[in-house]
Amino acid sequence: MERIWGGRKLAEFFGKNLPANKRIGESWEIVDRPEAQSFVGRGPLKGKSLHELWIEDRSSIFGDVPDAPRFPLLIKLLDAHEKLSLQVHPPKQFAGKLGGEPKTEFWYVAAADPGAELLLGLREPIKRDQFEKALREGTAADHVHKISVKPGDAAFIPAGRLHAVNAGNLLIEIQENSDTTYRVFDWNRVDDKGKSRELHIDQALECVNFDDVRPRLLHPEGELLLRDDLFEIQKWNLDSPREIATLGQFAIACCLTGSLRCADVDLTPGEFFLVPAELRDRELKPTSHQTSLLKITIP
Questions:
Q1: How many CB atoms lie within 10 A of CB 49?
Q2: For the chain, which residues score pLDDT lower than 70?
Q3: Staple 175 to which of 68, 76, 105, 234, CB 3.0 to 4.6 Å?
């Protein structure tokens, strides 16, 4: 996905084949959207879309998961060569009224330049009318909480949390299957044609949680990075073969470092494998030293 803030790190770090002379900000890796689909790469189901599998082979591929019109997760790689807009995603109670979809997300910092930051929540308590005034005056960024990050850090962005990604971050994003973003402030940026991107100030003000002051990065509990109603994410350092999940449960593996193999699939950093619930060969085997991965499941 071309983005005004994108760069070329998806090729440098993850070997993605990027179109020439384009600023690529996102790679949608596991996706079941009307406008974008993942497809099975090989094997007996080669060519089937993720949506077809969700509708036609739900129990054999995904096991016993909550019903939904589409596969409930969207997983991306993000290259913030420049900073993203200051934005918010709608909580469930506001999304329908505003014509959008609720969106909660998780970020894993795969790489970060020295001094890289994430902007999360508010720096100090502020009332809605005060924040709106700051927005109109172009000073909203002064009220956002900044956190320095390094590779291996992780953050939770529940719907309603004001947030932005500063330049120099390469992220793995795991989120609700939604593409609704309300831009609050875009740093007075214009595109190649001198046009600024649309802001959604009225919708954003409805959604921002003004009690969300100085949130912190996630603190892992052993291998567990996050357990939420929407997804559970673990980080494994894989030094010997290990079953990704019990038979009957699907899981997604994302290689972070090193390399690994599952069934007849080899994964290198930035690659994903959706392990079907009924796949019998479920062992992840490291094929190089210092292999690590994210394991993603739906509770």
A1: 16
A2: none
A3: 105
